[in-house]
Design goal:
single chain, mainly alpha, 5% strand, MazG-like_dom, YpjD/YvdC, NTP pyrophosphohydrolase MazG-like domain-containing protein
């Protein structure tokens, strides 16, 4: 199986060092609980899944808006108002929201990524 640890490190600004993938997943667990505490723990799991899927769509739309601005493919008024520093934050939002949705649906993201990376590496004969 592929070792995803070196491929999936993210800046961990609170510690001033790199966060491991396991630390990211633990942070997602904490964030999941914070969201449940703040917005209520849906007794209906389908509603939580639906809400997180819609939230992912919202975050993806915001990332798409940033990509369009990055490539100057927006109306001039939008480009004039664009701050230009949100692209990395929107990528992070999409990743975090995806991980929260996966947690809600019981997907083992680490295993899923390892299997997918192995499949791609086998298909294209990648040697790491």
């Amino acid at each position: 199986m592929a070792n995803i640890e070196p491929m999936l490190c993210v800046a961990y600004s609170q510690k001033g060092c790199d966060m491991t993938f396991e630390e990211l997943l633990k942070w997602v667990d904490v964030e999941d609980q914070r969201l449940k505490d703040q917005f209520g723990n849906y007794p209906d799991e389908e509603k939580r899944i639906l809400a997180r899927t819609v939230k992912l769509s919202e975050e993806l739309g915001e990332l798409c808006d940033e990509v369009l601005s990055f490539n100057s493919m927006q109306r001039q008024e939008k480009l004039d108002e664009h701050e230009g520093d949100n692209l990395s934050a929107e990528f992070a939002d999409v990743l975090i929201t995806t991980l929260l949705l996966a947690k809600t649906m019981g997907v083992d993201v680490r295993t899923a990524l390892e299997k997918k990376i192995d499949k791609i590496n086998t298909r294209y004969e990648v040697k790491i």
